[in-house]
Write a structure and sequence with these properties.
By secondary structure, the chain is an alpha/beta fold. Helices cover 39% and strands 14% of the residues. The strands form two sheets. A five-stranded parallel beta sheet has the order 7-6-5-8-9. Strands 2-1-3-4 form a four-stranded parallel beta sheet, with helices on both faces. The longest helix has 20 residues. The structure holds phosphoric acid mono(formamide)ester. Phosphoric acid mono(formamide)ester binds next to helix 3.
Amino acid sequence: MILLIITVIMLKNRSIISISDLSDEEINEIFSQADKMLENLETGRKMNIMSSKILATLFFEPSTRTRLSFESSMERLGGSVISMADSKTSSASKGETLADTIRIVESYSDIIVIRHPLEGAALLASRFSSKPVINAGDGSGEHPTQTLIDLYTIKKELGEINGKTITIVGDLKYGRTVHSLLSALSRYNVKVNLVSPENLSLPRHVYSEVKGKLDLNTTTDITKYLSDTDILYVTRIQKERFTDKNEYAKLIGSYRISLNDVEKLKSGAIILHPLPRVDEISPEVDNTKTAKYFKQAYYGVPIRMALISMIAGD
Ligand code: CP
């Protein structure tokens, strides 16, 4: 009990820039709090524990799930939201620096959620803010709250993370959700198969961080590990990161998960995807019991409710 209280207190006013900012105990406590939030959500009652607080969302890149689930979470906790959903409508379009934007927004809010196309932007924002900053995706860097959702979904749907085999497919080079997820998985006893076209393989710094901590295989062949897979984690090829659009055109459609692939998966396996999806999972898969990606997106709300209340609650 004392450890739990200390963990909750320790997250107070903390910025979350990388998944490595959270200890195993803190992650487990976020999951416990998310379970409570989920129970509350399912009763349909609005909580009133953040009524004096304001969450600011600053999105310099498009988003549906992350921004709206953070905003929904704050609303459900009884707090208020101010939002910059499009940098073209803010003074960033007049040339205002990120540092100056943050200096202003911190004076208008109690917690800031930021997404930015540049790796390191959330860290920079946290250095100019006396209020906690949550990284909602910085270029090809990290997306730590997506990883909390991914791990929580695995626990909810399969009961356990340890002992599982996870096959991660798609854009491992630019996919920030993959980078945060691999870092988190390296704390568990899991087997990981990495499937990508050769020129979208994992960046060297991410590979160096996790090799030796994970039982890791790499391949370009999607079929190779399907029968051994408990969790198939599919990702989109990140069109917006390519400087050469011809290169993207060559890679789009590299993998498309079909019913045929689903049939080859281990019994009881699930398919996750951080979404948005383009064409990497055939829509016919959506109606199979393996498809858990929409449930995964739903878990974004209880996870973010837990995180906001632990960081910015009284
Ligand atoms: N998973 C995720 O980050 O989705 P959005 O880009 O819609 O926020």
